[in-house]
Amino acid sequence: MIDPVLARIDADLPAATDRLLELLRIKSISTDPAFKDDCDAAADWLVADLKSLGFDASKRATPGHPMVVAHADGEGPHVMFYGHYDVQPVDPLNLWDRDPFDPALEETAKGKVFRGRGSSDDKGQLMTFVEACRAWKAVHGTLPCKISLFFEGEEESGSPSLVPFMKENAAELTADVALICDTGLFGEETPTIITQLRGLLGEELTIHGPSKDLHSGMYGGAAMNPVRVLSRILGSLHDETGRITIPGFYDGVPELPGQVKGQWDALGFDHGEFLGAVGLSEPAGEDGRTALEMIWSRPTCEVNGIWGGYTGAGFKTVLPAEAHAKVSFRLVGTQDPDAIRASFRKMVEDMLPADCSVEWQGHGTGAASQMSIDHPAFEAARAALSREWPQPAAYVGCGGSIPIAGHFKEVLGMDAMLIGFGKDDDQIHSPNEKYDLSSFHKGIRSWARIIDELASL
Ligand code: BES
Ligand code: ZN
Fold first, then answer.
1. Which of 60, 138, 204, 271 could make a disulfide contact with 67, Cβ separation 3.0–4.6 Å?
2. What are the tens digits of pLDDT across the range 109-120?
3. pLDDT (tens digit per residue) in 173-227
4. Cβ neighbours for 391, distance < 8 A, ≥ 6 positions apart
5. Is 109 exposed, middle or buried, given 0-12, 13-18 or 19+ CB atoms closer than 10 A?
6. Residues 306 and 434 in one domain
7. Which residues have a beta carbon within 5 Å of ligand 2, which is an ion?
């Protein structure tokens, strides 16, 4: 059954490449309202493509960007596949070597790559599954099992419409198992299945001081400067050992079980190479923890942006009226996003001097998720992946966050299996994002094998 499907995938690769390039031309930046129509266009493109494959596909309105839901009948277990069609903003644009939305297949020293925004995160990955379905349909006229597809257009902006949509359409969106393609390989050619994913909490704060911007010669020394207040607060969030100082922050953070630590050590992660590739040499996290441990299993607090006062060309002796920062936390274990938000806000408010106040804007929360790998789909997928790749599939952690992974379990009671084919050097969220043609090609072949394997469960 599978061999002719794989042959079809190989033969159809040029056409699949053209289809992905077409999708990559659509500027579906979800966080910026200027690109609302483009998000809509990406959803339309997907609906049309899925219909051409015989899926019962529809675009579904939400208060934000639309969802795409599609179903195809089949025998055996019901599999739900999730991906996101929205992409990150492209700035700084001047660091791109080509127009981010005029993608191309480029020849590089390490082989051919798709270059363009969203090539890896997540349009290229999403299309690996669609192309696997296309090949199954072309060869056998049907799919090996019952398949539904669920594509979101708000993943990169915190998924505000996701949970309400899942609740309203729970029966339609529930299947035996969920598949998510939004993660990466380990190294160059070890396929992975994610067993734990960090959660995310975002906070935006504005410190207000004087009622207006002041001359720092006239008022400096007498008036409190909100940038100074903000800097002191942000500078106190970590202690000298790298630990986060927010009271209660580490409640629910588990120590890594020895067996998992053993599995991770066996992967032979090259810390020097990992940091060296981005111009660094020393891990900056908690004392005594490796970079891999910090990324996959420890919580973090990062300042993602900070501004205030005069930041233009030249110099201006201003004492600003306000200062701003965006701070995010990656969460693990059973850390409670709401409790951490409350504790962080209290800590900041307690540090405010007289005459200063703080204004908050919270961003989408999501707790960490832990996958239950005793579900038989995990070993089935591992066997399928190990047949496609030169290395057997590994169980690994993921430092990023994918809000839906937890919601599949909490809202719909489904286990989610995260498998992806991105590489560490794909530059997701950065200029010159790329996706290897080999990731795309072997990703399609991997899904064709996985759905074949799942069909027999
Ligand atoms: N594909 C990423 C998640 C990811 C990041 C996987 C790194 C593997 C390695 C996903 O699209 C993403 O960027 N998620 C955001 C979520 C947020 C904006 C709610 C993230 O992790 O910052
Ligand atoms: Zn992303």
1. 60
2. 999 999 999 999
3. 999 999 999 999 999 999 999 999 999 999 999 999 999 999 999 999 999 999 9
4. 189, 190, 191
5. exposed
6. no
7. 121
Residues 263-313 pLDDT 10s: 899 999 998 999 999 999 988 999 999 889 999 999 999 999 999 999 999
Both tokens of residue 169? Answer: 């359409």
Angle at 402 between CA 396 and CA 404, to 5 degrees: 115
CA of 156, closest atom in ligand 1 = 18
Residue 283 within any structural domain of the chain: no
Shortest-distance atom of ligand 1 to CA 88:
13
The domain in which residue 215 lies consists of 199-253+299-366
352/398 same-domain check? no
Q: How is 329-364 classified by DSSP, letter by letter? A: EEE-TT--HHHHHHHHHHHHHHHPPTT-EEEEEEEE
Query: Are 101 and 164 part of one and the same domain?
Result: yes
Q: Does a structural domain hold residue 214?
A: yes
Nearest-atom index, ligand 1, CA of 159: 19
Q: Of the residues 338, 366, 394, which one is the last residue of a structural domain?
A: 366
Whole-number Å distance between alpha carbons of 310 and 11 = 58
Pocket of ligand 1 (CB under 6 A): 121-122, 155-156, 158, 182-184, 200, 364, 398, 400-403
Q: For the chain, what is the domain count?
A: 2
Whole-number Å distance, alpha carbon 402 to ligand 2 midpoint, is 8
**C-alpha to C-alpha distance for 78 and 55, rounded to whole angstroms:** 14
Structure tokens at 199: 């959660």
The closest alpha carbon to 36, from 157, 148, 142, 126, belongs to 157
DSSP state of 225: P
Final residue of a domain: which of 343, 366, 389? 366
C-beta of residue 267 within 8 angstroms of C-beta of residue 396: yes
**C-alpha to C-alpha distance for 218 and 232, rounded to whole angstroms:** 23
Claim to verify: residue 91 and residue 136 sit in the same structural domain:
yes
Residue 233 and residue 327 share a domain: yes
